[in-house]
Amino acid sequence: MNRQILTDLLRKRDFKAVRSILEVMYTVDIAALLAELDDKEMILAFRLIEKAKAAEVFAEMSSSMQAYLVEMFTEKELKELLDELYMDDTVDLLEELPANLVTRILEQVDREKRAQINTILNYPEDSAGSIMTTEYVDLRRTTTVREAMEHIKQTGIHKETIYTCYVLENRKLIGIVSAKDLMTMDDDLTMDELMEKEIISVTTHTDQEEAVRLLSRYNLLSLPVLDQQGYMVGIVTIDDAMDVLVDETTEDMEIMNALSPSEQPYFETGVFRHAKNRIVWLLFLMLSATLTQTIIAHYEAAFTAVPLLVSFIPMLTDTGGNCGSQSSTLIIRGLALDEIHFGDIFRVVFKEFRVAILVGAALAIVNGVYMVIRYRDPMLALLVSISLVATILIAKMIGCVLPLFAKKLHMDPAIMAAPLITTIVDVCSIMVYFQVATHLLGLI
Amino acid sequence: MNRQILTDLLRKRDFKAVRSILEVMYTVDIAALLAELDDKEMILAFRLIEKAKAAEVFAEMSSSMQAYLVEMFTEKELKELLDELYMDDTVDLLEELPANLVTRILEQVDREKRAQINTILNYPEDSAGSIMTTEYVDLRRTTTVREAMEHIKQTGIHKETIYTCYVLENRKLIGIVSAKDLMTMDDDLTMDELMEKEIISVTTHTDQEEAVRLLSRYNLLSLPVLDQQGYMVGIVTIDDAMDVLVDETTEDMEIMNALSPSEQPYFETGVFRHAKNRIVWLLFLMLSATLTQTIIAHYEAAFTAVPLLVSFIPMLTDTGGNCGSQSSTLIIRGLALDEIHFGDIFRVVFKEFRVAILVGAALAIVNGVYMVIRYRDPMLALLVSISLVATILIAKMIGCVLPLFAKKLHMDPAIMAAPLITTIVDVCSIMVYFQVATHLLGLI
C-alpha cells in the first residue's frame, strides 16, 4: 500500500475504498502510512479507521502525531479513543504529551482510571511499574476450568493478554494458570488443582531490564507485577518486553560509543539534538587527552633524538584501545546478560591476564619480525614489541576491571567502554613506551 | 535451592525429597543447578525428573551436558527423551552433538521425524528454517470454534504453541486464528469467518533476524514459515525469537569491538579460544597501522622543527576515532532496526555533514581557547583547531558511509565500526594535520 494511492482516494472522497483498505492493513503499517500524509489528510484517514482498531493504530504512532490528534479531536472522539486504549498505551501517551493536553485527557477518563494512571505515572522511569498494564484476567481459587473459560468469553476481549491468568486471594497473587491449561484440561478441575504455585514476579520498582530478563529466562508471555505491600497491580507483557530489550541494547551501544542515548530514531532527531548528544562526551574525552599532551611533551628529548619513535605512537595506542575495548565489551555484555557478576572479579582478571599474555606474545612476534625486516634495527623492534606487550596487558586489565567496578558502584557499566578505555590506555601506553625507550636506547 | 542440599539428599539416597524439589522448580533453574553437580550426581538427579519435564530441562542444558547424557542413556531412555523433545530443540541438540551420537539419535526416531530433522538441519545457518519448530495447531476452513477447541483439547498439549492456529488448505496457509478468538467468539462460527487473511510469513531461507523483526513489529507470538513452494512447514516462536535477538545483538557488539563473535558465554570459553577470537582483528588493525607509521615518518622534518606538534597526535586521532564511531554506531544500529536503508545515503551524508560542522566548531573553539591560554601561541592553536574540524568532518563522513556500503555489498555493517574507522581516520587526520602544519607554520 503506498501513500499516493491513499492520497488520491482521499482527494476523490472515496471513503468507502479507504475504509476497505484500512480494514485489511495491520495497525503498525497503517501508523507508518499515516506518518507520510500531511496533517489534514492524516486526521481524515484516521477518522475512517474502525474504533477499536483506531486505538491500536494510535498506540503505534509517534508522539508528535499523537499530540496533534489529541489537539484536533472533539471531546467525544477523545473519550472513544481513551475507552479503547490499553492502560500502558494511555500512560505512554501521557508521558509524552504537553501539559495542557494531559489535563484534557485526564478530564475525559473516569475517576478509577485516573487514579490508576496517576499511580503508574509516578513509578520510576524504566521500572516495571512504568511499563506494566493494569488489565489482566484474574480468577479465584475455587473457579473451575469451565467457569474460567466462561469468564474469559465475557470479559477477555478487553484484556491485553488472556494467555496467562492470575489466581488472586484478597488481592494477593497465589497462583498462575495458562490458557493452554484451561484449553486442554478437564472442565471440572478448579484453579487450586491446576495452578502453578511457584510464582515468578517483580515489584513495581524492579528495573525493567530485570523484568525482561525474567520473561526471557522463563519463557513467559507475561510477568505479574506486585506493589510494595505484595498486592498484584499489573503485568508486563512479552511484546513490551521485546521493545524494552531493543531500546536498552540501543542505549548500551550508544553509551559504549560516546553518544548520549536518544530514544528517537535517527531521522526523527534534529541536527542540533544530534550534535548535542555527541559533543558532551567528545569534549570530556578531548580535555582528558591534554594529559597525554603533557606526557608526550615531557619526553621531547627522546623523540627529537630518535624521531622514528613518534611514528609508532598511533599503532601502540590504537592496539591498546582495541584490546581494552575487546575486554570491556565482553564484560559489559556479560554483566547485562547476568552471566558475570562483581564477585567474579578475580576469575575475570586471571582469565584476561592469560589472554593478554597470549595476545601480546602473538602481536609482539609479528611486529618484531616486521620491524626487523623493514627497519633492520633489532633494538627498535624489541623496544616497540615490549611496549606492545605491556600496553596490551594494561589495556586488558583496565578494560575488564572498570566495568565491574562501575556495576558495583551502581553506575551503568556501558560507560566504561572503548572511548574512555582508549583515553586511559593512551596515557599508560605512551608512558610505558617512552620509559622503555629511555632505558633501552639509553636516551636522556 | 542450592547445590549442597541436593548433593546431601542424593548421598542419603532420599530420592523422594529430591523428586519433590525438582517437581516445583522451574526447568531453567533445574538445568542451572544440575550444571553445578558432578557427572554422576547429575545423571542421577536427571533420572529423578518426571519425563515430560525432563525433556524441557534437557533443552535448557549446555551442549556438553547434553552430549554426556546422550552417551550415558540407555536406548529406552533416549527414546523417551526424544519423544518428549520439541522438534526445534531436537535439531539444536543434533547441531551440537559429535557425529557418533547424532547417528545414535537418528536411529531412535521414526522415519517421519528423521525426515523432518534432516530437512531442518539442511537449512542455512541463521535462517528461519533452522530455528523453526514443525509442531503447530492446524485447522481447516470449515472447522467451527467448538470443533477447534475440541481438537486443541485432544492434541494441543503436544504442540509447542497453541495460541496461534493456522488454517490450511492443501498444505497452503490461508488464514490465521488466535486462541483469543477461539476463546471469546461464538462457538458456531467457522474458521473461514474468523480468520485473519492478511498473513505475515517468512520462508525457510529468510534470515532469522528478519523473522524476529516481523514478530516484534506485528506483536506476534509465532510466525509461520513457508517452504520455497509456499507450503507451510513450521513456525518460529516468540521465546526463540527473544534468544535470537539477544544473540544477534551480542554478536553485533562483539564485531563492533574487534572481536570474532562467539556463541559461548564468557566463562565457558577457554583462554586459547578467547585469544584466538581477539588476535585476528588485532593483527589486521596493527598491520594496517603501518601506513600511519610511513606517513608520520614522512613528516619527520616538521615535528623535529616543532616537537610540540607530536603531543597533539593522540588527541586528534582519538577525537577522530570517537566521532567516526559515533556516526557508524548510529548507522549500524539504524540498519539493524530497519530504520535506515542504503537509499537514504544522501540524507544521511547531509545530516552528518551538518552535525560534523556543529560538533567541529564547538570542539575547535574550546580547544583553541584552551591552547591559547596554555601555550600562548595563537598560530599553534589555529593549526590544531583547523585540523580538528577537518578530522571530525572526515571521520563523520567515513563513519556514516562505510556501514551503508557494507550493507549494499551484503556484508555485515557491524564490521565498519570503531576499530576499523579509527584506523582509517588515523591516516586521514595525521595527513591533514601535518599538511596544515607545513603550510601554516611555513615548515619544510
From TrEMBL, chains A, B:
Keywords: CBS domain, Cell membrane, Magnesium, Membrane, Metal-binding, Transmembrane, Transmembrane helix, Transport. The chain crosses the membrane at residues 279-299, 353-373, 380-405, 417-441. It is a multi-pass membrane protein. CDD domains: CBS_pair_Mg_transporter. It holds the Pfam family CBS. Signal peptide: none annotated. It is found in: Cell membrane; Membrane. PANTHER family: MAGNESIUM TRANSPORTER MGTE. Homodimer. This is Magnesium transporter MgtE. Residues 132-193, 195-251 form the CBS domain. Gene3D superfamilies: CBS-domain, MgtE N-terminal domain-like, SLC41 divalent cation transporters, integral membrane domain. Acts as a magnesium transporter. One of its GO terms (molecular function) is metal ion binding. Belongs to the SLC41A transporter family. The keyword RNA-binding does not apply. It comes from Sellimonas intestinalis. The gene is mgtE. InterPro entries: CBS_dom (IPR000644), CBS_dom_sf (IPR046342), Mg_transptr_MgtE_intracell_dom (IPR006668), MgtE_N_sf (IPR038076), MgtE_transporter (IPR006669), SLC41_membr_dom (IPR006667), SLC41_membr_dom_sf (IPR036739). SUPFAM superfamilies: CBS-domain pair, MgtE membrane domain-like, MgtE N-terminal domain-like. One of its GO terms (cellular component) is plasma membrane. The lineage of its organism: Bacteria, Bacillati, Bacillota, Clostridia, Lachnospirales.
